[in-house]
Amino acid sequence: MQVQSPEEPEHKSNTSFSSLVFRTFARQGVCLSKPQYSFLYRHAAPMGTTAKDEMNKFWAKNARLNRPMSPHITIYQWSVPMMMSITHRGTGVGLSGAISAFAVAALVLPGNYPYYLDLIHSLSIGPVLIGLAKFGIAFPVSYHTLNGIRHLYWDIGKGFKIPEVYRTGYTVIGLSIITSIMAIAMI
């Protein structure tokens, strides 16, 4: 039970309690359907347009002006920085997925690494296909690593001028190809 202070009148707590009860019932919609409780909402301001009306106006205007639903990727002029950004994200997702799949396979599949290496050798795949497979593994690792270094260079606030962006982009592509070929030759 709440203790009243001597200077606090009792009707104040009753008023706040009744307000709380009415607010609770009004929020739940219990009182709003009864006419005797209309004093709770008679001062409510009428609402403007709803979100649905605004959306309908937006789509009607776009249809009238013959606008597309959303910009499609085909409206953009492709550039080296744009392609490198997309490729960097793609190689990151691909590498993390491949590493995760390899880890799960190492835990779940029977046998060990030399067993599966011998299995691949027994397939008698030609050296061209093996070289392409090695390049397919080495290039994403090399590209993502070198482009990550390029991003770190940007993080220190350098290399943002357009000629530098293109120059570092072509450098990353060239070095990625060279290091991938070197990795293939070593393996």
From TrEMBL:
GO annotation, biological process: mitochondrial electron transport, succinate to ubiquinone; tricarboxylic acid cycle
Cellular localization per UniProt: Membrane
UniProt GO MF annotations: electron transfer activity; metal ion binding
Superkingdom: Eukaryota
Pfam family, one: Sdh_cyt
SUPFAM superfamilies for the chain: Fumarate reductase respiratory complex transmembrane subunits
Chief location bin: membrane
InterPro entries xref list: SQR/QFR_C/D, Succ_DH_cyt_bsu_CS, Succ_DH_cytb556, SuccDH_FuR_B_TM-su
Protein's membrane topology: Multi-pass membrane protein
GO cellular component: membrane; mitochondrion
Pathway assigned to this chain's UniProt record: Carbohydrate metabolism; tricarboxylic acid cycle
Record-annotated membrane-spanning stretches: 92-113, 119-144, 165-186
Assigned keywords, A-Z: Heme, Iron, Membrane, Metal-binding, Transmembrane, Transmembrane helix
UniProt-listed NCBIfam families: succ_dehyd_cytB
Binding partners and assembly: Component of complex II composed of four subunits: the flavoprotein (FP) SDHA, iron-sulfur protein (IP) SDHB, and a cytochrome b560 composed of SDHC and SDHD.
Stated role: Membrane-anchoring subunit of succinate dehydrogenase (SDH) that is involved in complex II of the mitochondrial electron transport chain and is responsible for transferring electrons from succinate to ubiquinone (coenzyme Q). SDH also oxidizes malate to the non-canonical enol form of oxaloacetate, enol-oxaloacetate. Enol-oxaloacetate, which is a potent inhibitor of the succinate dehydrogenase activity, is further isomerized into keto-oxaloacetate.
PANTHER family on file: SUCCINATE DEHYDROGENASE CYTOCHROME B560 SUBUNIT, SUCCINATE DEHYDROGENASE CYTOCHROME B560 SUBUNIT, MITOCHONDRIAL
Name of the protein in question: Succinate dehydrogenase cytochrome b560 subunit, mitochondrial
